[in-house]
Amino acid sequence: MTVAEFVDGASPVIRVVRTYDHPIERVWRAVTAPEHLAAWFPTGAEMDLVPGGKIRFGDLGDGGSTGEVLLVEPPNRLDFRWGDQRFEFHLAAAGGTATTFTLVHHFDDRAGAASFATGWELCLRALAAALDGAPPPPADRGAARHEELVRAFGLDRPRVTRDGDGWHVRFERQLTCSADAAREVLGPAADGERLAFAPGTGHGARLVVEFERTDETAVASAVALWTARIEGVSAAACDIDGGAGDEGGVG
């Protein structure tokens, strides 16, 4: 399986590439037609396939949302916007009857990158099954895979910045468990350390830890300590979850 690619920067990007042994026209229908999208896309979707056309995600009467088609070049390219995120579907003939499908996801939430990538990998696994006429793959939240990608993408490392006479350290980590479960493993923060939880991307809660130190040795020691504590949450979440549960992680 091709590993999801993370392009870090001011506007992060996830790129996932898969090759399916099906003609390009069939794959195009699978990634644009509502009756086929339902088999693999994170939510139901209906698209008006013209530039500027509206996309309806989910049930608009029950918390659904809308997006906009930006570019359509059947059967090779579809670009669209969903909220503050942008997506590109690229299709190319890959020899014989095979098609290479490249999904590109542009977003601002850097800490959510591993969650987005894990979710898309699960979705494209479901797309493969749908194209093959096979049963859907077993439900899987991909907790272990998420943690692999966190480390591969460098999302386990904090941002350390010089701040006046010292250093400011900030961890922001997407978790695969609830805030309550994380608190049980982490325990309390020390004086001067700030620990907070916020809603995450769908895999679990978002953890933010911040603190200041005036000495480089103290910074290194505190970073090592908090890295170990957060990895303890990760390991516990994977043990409890086992990678199983409701599929999530995209958007």
UniProtKB/TrEMBL annotation:
Record InterPro entries: ASHA1/2-like_C (IPR013538), START-like_dom_sf (IPR023393)
Which residues does the UniProt record annotate as the domain Activator of Hsp90 ATPase homologue 1/2-like C-terminal?
A: 21-131
One Pfam annotation reads: AHSA1
- What domain of life does the native source organism fall in? Bacteria
Q: What Gene3D superfamilies does this protein's entry cite?
A: 3.30.530.20
The family line of this record is: Belongs to the AHA1 family.
UniProt protein name: Activator of Hsp90 ATPase homologue 1/2-like C-terminal domain-containing protein
Source species = Dactylosporangium matsuzakiense
Q: Which lineage is the organism of this entry classified under, starting from the top rank?
A: Bacteria, Bacillati, Actinomycetota, Actinomycetes, Micromonosporales
